[in-house]
Design brief:
11 helices, alpha/beta, 7-stranded parallel beta sheet, two-stranded parallel ribbon, single chain
Length: 344
């Protein structure tokens, strides 16, 4: 198949693109290579993809209407995996405008491109952040989530609704995946694991919000990539039993599906930090802080629908995933902590 992967130089996009290429698909990777975080890291991911057969890179901004129209007209995409977005809950508090340009305008251009070129299936990234003020655990796609706590979450909730409208109006099969905290090698520098590692190696304190009382559904990136590809392969279909008098938010009378994609095993933040300390061979100095605006105390994904429909089952325990990240980080950055000794 010929597949468009947006955000191909990003963390998850890199892994998804590589998996598709390794199984023989043709991938057109789109990214604008913006400077939200280290462009050098994005280019290093991209360089690995460009070594593989059947990969083409297009540098383009999702908000560029003409460019996006030309992209869809030039290629005949069988399927689209839309992972590009302006990410980050905290960044959205200070810089709201990029979220509208990328996450809303960009999503519209993706939907229009899929409609105009009769794409077989659109898979798009949503987020666990859409659950917002919900506290009932585990988070279920069948429950209503109408109270986002950040603009980032609100734009992702809007993406879900936009996709449903296109599925309903134009019979565009669309699957939304609500990602839970993804980590692993080649991760984003704005994520906690990356920042914790940098600070511990530099001898600086780590900021631990909510006084370390968070629980997160940490999910290893290769498990996520497998789930994305399996979802892409399983074209969304209508729920023939969907009831308009009792509407299920996760399905529809249109070819539309929503799924959680996470590890389904919440981990205490303290355990996560302890695993990192162990593999780095250094104790962290903690700067305990209250919970930040827009954040939530706990996340926990109910992934039974995804397991049933596409065979998704994450298999990487957090200690193994953190170890892989540390090994990659020390190799990639040549960190001076290579000589650190294990903690007794």
């Amino acid at each position: 198949m010929r597949i468009l992967v947006t955000g191909a130089a990003g963390f998850i996009g890199f892994y998804v693109s590589r998996l598709l290429l390794e199984r023989g698909d043709s991938v057109v990777g789109l990214d604008n290579l913006n400077d939200y975080y280290d462009v050098g890291l994005k280019k290093a991911r991209l360089a690995q993809l460009e070594e593989l057969d059947n990969f083409s890179f297009v540098k383009l901004d999702l908000a560029d209407r003409g460019g996006m129209e030309s992209l869809f007209a030039r290629y005949c995409f069988d399927r689209v995996v839309h992972l590009a977005a302006q990410a980050g809950v905290r960044y959205s508090l200070e810089n709201p405008h990029p979220y509208v340009d990328s996450n809303l305008v960009g999503m519209l251009h993706i939907l229009e491109g899929c409609r105009q070129s009769s794409v077989e299936h659109l898979v798009f990234a949503s987020t666990s952040s859409v659950y917002g003020a919900n506290t009932r655990m585990p988070f279920s796609v069948h429950a209503s989530c109408e109270h986002p706590l950040s603009l980032y979450a609100a734009t992702k909730k809007a993406n879900e609704m936009m996709a449903h409208s296109y599925s309903s109006l134009y019979s565009l099969p669309a699957t939304g995946l609500r990602f839970f905290t993804v980590y692993g090698p080649w991760g984003r520098p704005d994520m906690a694991l990356f920042q914790f590692t940098q600070n511990i190696l530099d001898g600086r304190p780590i900021d631990v919000f909510n006084y370390g009382k968070h629980r997160r559904d940490f999910t290893y990136v290769t498990d996520i990539a497998q789930g994305v590809v399996r979802s892409m392969d399983t074209i969304a279909s209508a729920n023939l039993n969907w009831d308009a008098d009792d509407p299920d938010p996760a399905t529809s009378s249109a070819p539309y599906r929503l799924y959680n994609i996470g590890n389904s095993t919440p981990v205490d933040l303290e355990r996560y930090i302890e695993a990192l300390e162990d593999y780095l061979g250094k104790k962290a100095e903690r700067n305990n802080l209250p919970m930040q605006p827009g954040d939530v105390p706990d996340t926990w994904a109910d992934v039974e629908d995804l397991a049933r429909d596409v065979g998704y089952r994450p298999s990487t325990p957090v200690e193994e995933g953190v170890r892989h990240f540390v090994d990659w980080y020390l190799e990639f950055y040549g960190a001076g902590a290579k000589n650190a000794q294990p903690i007794d």
